[in-house]
Specification:
Number of strands: 19
Strand content: 15-25%
Order of helices and strands: EEEHEEEEHEEEEHEHEHEEHEHEHHEHE
Shape: globular
Bound molecules: beta-D-glucopyranose
Radius of gyration: 20 Å
Length: about 350
């Protein structure tokens, strides 16, 4: 079969190539790939900044935002041939740490977790892939291709759960929420926040086009420019850019008792002076700066329900380009109007 593979930490090493059929040891469920979403993490991997091949191998099959169709349900009692499914990304560490032991692999404490298409396990950008039955999530068949948005939705489901839990540390009546970054993660956050009784604001660099349109379709308010120039202090900031200056501004701008949830990975700091200054702002306002990564089965389950209940027309506008696997490089090169770009392996 064909797969999109990469030699992690080696820039420009990605290839669409012949690759052995998935090993039966990877799980009894055999799936035909339908589509795989591309995100910033994939770009980091193909540019040589991130990623790990499986032990003893040099190349990694890329892709963690999957959607596939069951060819053989294997040992699964709940799956049937033809079901639309998505593969869970993370596996618990083998020790296991206390969190992995209770199924919270998203909170792994020793860093020995593995992740499909990212860290030591092959991903989903291959014509066929396998999984252990317990790491396969069935998606509502009426979602069709939109099921490819499940993985990004899980990331937001987990992040917002964290915000709500942290909010319970004191009497908490949030009114305004700011989402920084109107990419797929930011927009899915805005989608979920807009169903609550909150004023939702989204800030991005892009001034016109799909981003402001999708935000206003949710009844939320779109802003460009600097977080510092906003005419209000948000009670919650869901940070989806990973850009150092946006994070620093968010820490200074958030209201007292506010919560900042960081979801973006990237950027980099500007030295200890700036970090100390920023940290002081957090301490003095009793703010919580919370990191959030990955998602556990509870989040995957909830995300499936959230996605199935969302406005299909709005969701479908998120997928702005579909690229054939052999042209995968076009998917990895960002274009100005890109939102979610997917690599489509088979028809749906
Ligand atoms: C993925 C997560 C993963 C994280 C760090 C993100 O792009 O969505 O599943 O945990 O990267 O590797």
């Amino acid at each position: 079969m064909k797969a999109i593979t990469v030699e992690p930490k080696k820039p420009a090493s990605a290839r669409y190539e012949d690759f052995p059929e998935p090993d039966a040891r990877e799980g009894s469920v055999l799936v035909e790939a339908v589509a795989v979403g591309v995100c910033g993490t994939d770009v980091e991997i193909v540019t040589g900044k991130y990623g790990w091949a499986p032990p003893g191998k040099t190349r990694l099959v890329l892709g963690h935002e999957s959607l596939g169709r069951v060819i053989d349900p294997g040992e699964s009692s709940s799956l049937q041939k033809g079901d639309l499914v998505v593969g869970i990304v993370r596996r618990p560490d083998p020790v296991p740490c206390s969190n992995c032991a209770v199924g919270e692999w998203d909170m792994c404490r020793n860093g020995q977790y593995t992740e499909r298409g990212i860290k030591e396990i092959h991903g989903f950008m291959s014509e066929r892939w396998r999984s252990e039955p317990e790491y396969v999530i069935k998606v509502d068949p009426s979602l069709g291709i939109l099921g490819v948005l499940l993985e990004p939705m899980t990331v937001i489901t987990k992040a917002l759960e964290q915000v709500l839990l942290i909010g319970q540390r004191a009497y908490w009546e949030p009114r305004t929420v700011l989402v920084t970054g109107a990419g797929p993660i930011g927009l899915l956050a805005a989608l979920r926040l807009s169903v609550r009784n909150l004023q939702v604001h989204v800030l991005d660099r892009v001034e016109t086009g799909l981003r402001p349109e999708l935000v206003s379709a949710l009844g939320a308010t779109y802003h460009t420019g600097s977080v510092m120039d906003l005419p209000f202090e948000p009670d919650v900031i869901v940070e989806c850019t990973g850009v150092g200056s946006v994070i620093a501004d968010s820490i200074h701008k958030v209201a007292a008792g506010g919560i900042i949830c960081l979801t973006g990975i990237g950027a980099g700091g500007t030295g200890y002076g700036a970090v100390a200054d920023t940290a002081a702002a957090v301490v003095l306002k009793n703010n919580v700066l919370v990191g959030s990564v990955n998602a556990n089965k509870r989040h995957w389950y909830k995300a499936g329900q959230n996605l199935a209940g969302a406005d299909r027309e709005w969701l479908s506008r998120l997928i702005t380009r579909r690229v054939k696997p052999e042209n995968f490089e076009q998917a990895l090169n960002r274009e100005p109007d890109d939102m979610k770009v997917i690599i489509q392996f088979s028809d749906i």
